[in-house]
Amino acid sequence: MNTGIRLIALGILSAYFSVVYSHGGGLNSQGCHNQNSDSTYHCHSGAYDGQSFSSEQAFFDFINSSGGGSGSGSEETGGNDVNSTYDRDDYLPGWADADGDCISTRHEVLILESQVPVTLSSNGCSVVSGSWLDLLTGITFTDPSDVDIDHHVPLSEAHDSGGLFWTKSQKQAYANDLLMAEALVAVDDGTNSSKGARDPGEWLPPNAAYHCSYVKNWVEVKERYGLSYDSVEQAAIEDILGTSISLGSRSVLEGMSTVTGSAAGLFGMGIRRGGQCGYATSGSINEALEISLSITPTLAHASQSIEIILVAAVGSDLFIIDGTGNLIPFTGAGSELVPFIGPTVYQQSTSFTLFDGMLSSATAFDLFVAYRTSQGELVFTASPFSVIVN
After folding, report:
1. Domains of the chain by range and CATH?
2. H or E segment to which residue 129 belongs
3. Number of H helices, E strands in the chain
4. Alpha carbon of 138 to those of 90, 133, 200, 294: distances in Å?
5. What is the pTM of this model?
6. 361: DSSP letter
7. 197-239 pLDDT, tens per residue?
């Protein structure tokens, strides 16, 4: 097919997804993006989640003039003025129980991260046994009293990196984030005490084999929440990444829902080449190459069974990628869609490998990622990720 026919094929794909996508691609470090249709500026994660501005400049004028406090109609940040002094109680007066099932955030994390089914107390509200691999040390624990729930980016570090501008509800949402798998981690209590509020420029886990994942998870959290870095912290992270801190996290695209026609979920893609820890913008032939994807469902979808679907535009043709990696020609008909990963309940964000190996010839393709709920709702990236192997 020529280029014109390829564009028609992509149009068929967009028509199936049945929404008009007018966003400017992925979210930036503030968790925001430009709306191409009218040049407005919208934020969907981080400190300014849910706020909209007439333009990107209006957003920065707002930050500079008001210190980034609450937007129109939102809760004030601890009063009428931004308070630069960190107060743990603003973030975590106590672990929350967001779904009202008597199991607090602490015990939800223990359930999520246990390597075996947990045993609950007689009232079903707390975990009394399980098995937790602490990646900071490489040690496995079975007694929950030996385990802390670590805020991967500590609360005071988040505060000093931009969280001081959040409302109290935003601060407490950060402190109890169960949807982002990297945000809260079950770890050895003694090691967590040793870490304290220190960043990677001041402290790294005793398990050296975990340093790469540790700093990448750190960057993932900070990027999701639009948090900043100091120079020492950034230098230490880049030393481990082997690349710029901007490549310390997967590139992210916002999802769109076929039911609501609005933003829903987040999708990420990262390319790693050779033995480098950080991500790259492209791959190279005859070199070890890993392409990984991440999916963060909406809070409502985190309790549902979903299928993950991949559609690739290779050259001028569209293909569905099935669970064995086969490329199935795709005309745009919904009945043709088959999952890359079958029905699964993801209670929080998840990542998986699309490709791990070496390619002997150059290739380039665009990749659309989606998940489909058991009710038939499709959440997808209307704008694709680009994969280039030179």
Report:
1. 1-19+242-390 (2.70.50), 24-74 (no CATH), 78-197 (no CATH)
2. strand 127-129
3. 9, 20
4. 32, 6, 18, 24
5. 0.81
6. S
7. 999 999 999 999 999 999 999 999 999 999 999 999 999 999 9
